[in-house]
Amino acid sequence: MGLFTPVSPYRKGRHLMTTTPAPVLMDLTTSPYGYLALLIFLLAYVFVVMEEKLGLRKSKPVIVASGCIWILVGLAYQQQGDSHTAGIQLRHYILDYAELFLFLLAAMTFVNLMEERRVFVALRTWLVSRGYSLRTIYWVTGGLTFIISPIADNLSTALLMGAVVLAVGDHNYRFISVGCINVVVAANAGGAFSPFGDITTLMVWQKGVVEFTEFFRLLLPSLINWLIPALLMSLTVERIQPAGERRHQRMKKGGLTVVILFLLTIVLSVTVHSQLHLPPVLGMMTGLGVLKIYGYYLSFHDPIFREQGHITHHHAENTARHSLLHGDHTGVIRRFDIFKVVERESWDTLMFFYGIVLCVGGLASLGYLTGLSTLLYGNLGINLANGLIGLLSSLVDNIPIMFAVLTMDPGMTLQQWLLATLAVGTGGSLLSIGSAAGVALMGQAKGTYTFFSHLKWSWAILSGYIASLICHLWLNGI
Prior knowledge:
Elements: E1 10-12, E2 15-17, H1 32-49, H2 51-54, H3 59-79, H4 85-116, H5 119-128, H6 134-152, H7 154-169, H8 173-191, H9 199-207, H10 219-234, H11 255-274, H12 281-301, E3 315-317, H13 319-326, E4 334-336, H14 338-343, H15 347-365, H16 368-378, H17 382-392, H18 398-408, H19 414-427, H20 436-444, H21 451-455, H22 458-476
Antiparallel strand pairs: 1-2, 3-4
């Protein structure tokens, strides 16, 4: 990688255009600074893996590690008589993160507002009230997860459909366990063929190596990735009616409008990127501005609630204003406030992403990723290397893996970049801890969907993973 210019770069097609030469990076992997930086990164990752046991949010250790690593990078280069390269590289990675941060902030606000408007609750109510058998609901939840995750991201979709599985399954623990695995695999597979489906696909799109419409070439391999394990697991699901209560809950005012605004924002982002060669974050932030204006409208026309709603803390306290209007000085009134929705963003995930981007960028500036790229893509071959990094993503978070591959920039063709995207996006399904969707559902269905219940079906998921990679290789003749 190593391309940077103080003047903002712009992307055209798959090329990063710059106006000044890139700084020359040194190989400092065998220096004391290099060893210490690698040790700090590994130590931080131990804390990330033990997040559930320690109760320490994963963003905290990586943010500290990123600062320490870049101080070491600065010291290492300065000792070599270069006092400029470290700062140039750091600004480059901060710029990369800034684009992704604003994009994710806008996308998460849309998803959270759809949740606050009970869009997802209404969908869950509709599914539960249809009177389908458990096997039919198994396929419906998996299919909807595969369809929705490319738009609403795999984590949000997994949580939504996981709630449906829990609501339908009641005390049928076998159905809940298999249903949750089905949702996790479908969410990761569906998110692999859309820039909006996962952070890793978003990173690939924003980097400019794959255009928006080119991601849809992964549709068939992604479908195979989900269908094979889904078919094998469905044999254990009974054709009986679900038990449990069926409550009808409606979408709140403006829910459908928010969905339409989100779709229009996606169209705007794609258009400004493909036609004007501007960063897609411009379209997302513009759409977020329109959403906030619509939120202003809702604040005047939305009914006033007293601790009501799917997410009650999305409503701002407005006691003083209400008291002045009605002469009532006793009650706490809550009214819709768009900024309360923004407060509910997954800030731990956004800050974790910051730490990972800077940690990996620091190690790259010390020369580690150049050596890793040579080991994987030079010695093993690109196709095998991409398959292996997909398996690695089931043990290590897929965000740093994809960022590392993008930073290596091993000179892959479009078809090979798509293979890497498919592998990293779906490889995490092999283990429950291999993806954000799996980790989230383990917390949602504690004691029922567990690491070991998922592990029992890893062989089926692996067969789907291998088949999807073979399908992509066959379709593209590579």
